[in-house]
Design a protein that fits this description.
70% helix; mainly alpha
Length: 189
């Protein structure tokens, strides 16, 4: 009998009407008590109670409406600026002739040189790309030449360092020169 009570306590079952530790942890993990049957039925019957898809649609709708409002505001500002420029430009373009009639300074055959055409923009863009490409190629070639020179210097230094006499002893002349060069470089810096 005593053994049975100990096992019940270890398993976490109800003992003397009080909740066990295990049940408390489960309730805490699940967020307290569940919904009552009535509350659950009401929640299910209301379609728009909590529907993530509808909430997402509403958010998207308001976001789009906000963007449309910004766009319309921008268009309105641009049209106002355009109206102002049109109000100013006719005064500048028209001149009075000798007989008192007004005459436009621009001919219909003349193109508007203030706004570059798409073809010109295309050419400018490609010229700029070509210039940058040529600069990059020149830069890469200079780097490659520098790398090759450095590699040749290292190779010749390595050959000198590993030179041996007929007896198999290392030639100390090159090693001492190398040591002196490194000491001179360090004293300069």
């Amino acid at each position: 009998m005593k053994n049975r009570k100990l096992k019940d306590k270890e398993n976490g079952e109800k003992i003397n009407g009080s909740e066990s530790i295990k049940m408390k942890k489960n309730k805490k993990r699940l967020g307290g008590r569940g919904l009552s049957l009535e509350a659950f039925a009401n929640a299910k019957s209301k379609r728009d109670f909590y529907n993530p898809a509808l909430i997402k649609k509403k958010k998207e709708f308001y976001k789009n409406a906000k963007n449309v409002k910004k766009y319309k505001k921008l268009l309105k500002q641009q049209s106002q600026q355009h109206d102002i420029s049109l109000a100013i430009s006719p005064l500048e373009e028209e001149n009075e002739t000798e007989d008192g009639s007004t005459m436009s300074m621009k001919n219909k055959n003349n193109k508007n040189h203030g706004i570059p055409s798409l073809k010109e923009l295309y050419k400018q863009k490609h010229e700029k790309k070509e210039r940058t490409r040529i600069e990059m190629v020149a830069l890469n070639e200079a780097k490659m030449e520098e790398r090759e020179k450095a590699e040749a210097r290292r190779k010749s230094a390595k050959e000198k360092m590993f030179k041996k006499t007929q007896a198999g002893q290392p030639v100390m002349k090159y090693r001492i020169e190398h040591l002196l060069e490194t000491i001179e470089k360090s004293t300069r810096n």
